[in-house]
Amino acid sequence: MKNSIWLLIAVAGVAVCAASARADSMWDYQAVNSAGYGIHPKVWADETDPASRIIIEGVALAGVDEILDPGLQYTVFLQDDMSDRGGMQAWTGKFLYGDALWAYFRSTDYIDFSAGDRLRITGLIADMGRGKVVINNRGHSGAPNLVWHVDILGHPGLPDPQLIASVSHCNYFDETRAGGGERYQGRYVMLHGVEVTAGSWGNNSLMTIGDATGSVGMLLSAVGNFGVNPQPQGRLNVVGIFDQEDDQVSPYTGGYRVWVKKAADISAALDACREAGARDAGERVALAGKVVSRVFDGFFFIQDEGRSGGVRVISSRAVSPGEIVSVAGVIVEDQSGRAIAASYVSRSSGGQAPRPLFVNSAVARGERGLSVQGLLVRVAGVAGAGDGEGGFILTDASGTIAVRVSGGAAPQQGAAVIVTAVAVGSGDGAALVAAGPEDIELVTQ
Q1: CB half-sphere exposure, 408, CA atoms < 13 A
Q2: Which residues contact 75 (CB under 8 A, 6 or more apart)?
Q3: Containing H/E element for 103?
Q4: 86 and 25 in contact (C-beta within 8 Å)?
Q5: Which of 222, 220, 184, 224 shows the shortest CA–CA distance to 79?
Q6: Of 222, 231, 216, whose CA–CA distance to 263 is shortest?
Q7: 271 close to 233: Cβ distance less than 8 angstroms
Q8: Does residue 132 contact residue 244 with C-beta atoms inside 8 Å?
Q9: Dihedrals phi, psi of 67, to nearest 5 degrees
Q10: C-beta of residue 59 within 8 angstroms of C-beta of residue 76
């Protein structure tokens, strides 16, 4: 009985320690002072005290072999997936242990993982005088009690990168983290409309990118594929992990950079949706700040807020009409025209559902007026016979155009209707793509 009581007390003590270790978030651990030095109480806390260890959980922004050579160094970038703030790096290296111990710890504690895995990391935190708090081996020591541990909890997938409005929003220091580099540190981000201004293109190269508002670093992964791909030119869209490495003397308030994993994470930055139609299949492009017009199974349409153009985006990412998004991906082409097969979709708050343009079938077919391809339009006419799958032919004074409806039945033949849909294709291949029966309005005679 006495042993059971002591066991219960011990278990309760472990539970209290675990709860205490989880009490703070990555955002809390990354707090800094005016010199950019970590000020959380557990930064450099007593390594012999079990309560000094922290436990963090989040999504890995890069796989074990996407940033550094995992045979020599082991690093994790973890983003807090329960909040829109917070991220942390963990790092260790082979030189701390030697061949035998390194092989052992790589199989027990520093395990392999993939980008998008949800991980739990248990370890000690320190500030190595480079402007950020990290989980590491406390001054590059190989002592066994300083080993940190990784567990894989699942695979929710990579988070959407957060669009940073301009370089001026992330290239300065603010200890409050209301803005600046400290706010974005450790998180997946997207910069749109930047140009390379300095540096050599290749693996493990630190370059400089900038826009009209300022400049910031762009670090290319040490194990990337940059050397076998040409350096992109012109205005670019960049997706990567926002990081800091200030190797100067105190204060540690600079050295911000976007750490890019692979060449495919850098795309040509387009301004208008209609520019996608002039690009060749296979080109990597990106658009920022566009409004979602209609959503379908496996794809959606976006358009410029000024209704100058639109384009189809192939992605299963959940978005809603009126939502503002930024996308990066590859140009593909099918019978409906050119589309973007998205690698990344960045969602932003705000925006309103776009108003459709009222046009006739000739304009929708691309035979008159300005192009409306990819735009939300309204066309009034008379419904023809249905195709058995909800689609039908619409006839107005300017001719006919096919209507494709996602779900539901076609209106009765001969009914006067107003169709709200996205215009795709041209000529005989033109069509109006409606999201559902609610986009087919019956007009009473």
Answers
A1: 16
A2: 67, 68, 89, 90, 91, 92
A3: helix 99-108
A4: yes
A5: 184
A6: 231
A7: no
A8: yes
A9: -115, -55
A10: no
Scanning the structure block, which residue is given the tokens 């630190």? 206
By three-state DSSP, how is residue 404 classified? Answer: strand
Whose CA is closest to 344, among 262, 422, 281, 279?
262
DSSP state of 9: H
- Measured between alpha carbons, how far is 120 from 111 in angstroms, rounded to an integer? 12
Q: Residue 114: helix, strand or coil by DSSP?
A: coil
Q: What is the DSSP string of 159-224?
A: PPPEEES-GGGTSS--TT-SSSHHHHTTSEEEEEEEEEEE---STT-EEEEEETTEEEEEEEPTTS
Q: Are 201 and 241 in contact (CB under 8 A)?
A: no
Q: Tokens for 83, please give them.
A: 């909040």
What's the half-sphere exposure (Cβ side, CA atoms, 13 Å) at 182? 27
Nearest to 356 by CA among 297, 310, 405: 310
Domains and CATH numbers, the chain: 19-154 (2.40.50.140), 162-268 (2.40.50.140), 270-348 (2.40.50.200), 357-442 (2.40.50.140)
Average pLDDT across each block of 10 residues of the chain; the chain has 445 residues. List them in order.
Answer: 38 41 83 96 96 97 97 98 95 96 97 98 92 91 93 97 97 97 98 98 98 98 96 97 93 97 98 95 97 96 94 95 97 89 91 91 92 95 92 96 90 96 90 94 85
Can you read off the two tokens belonging to residue 137?
């081996």
Cα-based distances in Å from 382 to 373, 414, 434: 22, 6, 16
Q: What is the pTM of this model?
A: 0.91
Q: Name residue 23's amino acid.
A: A
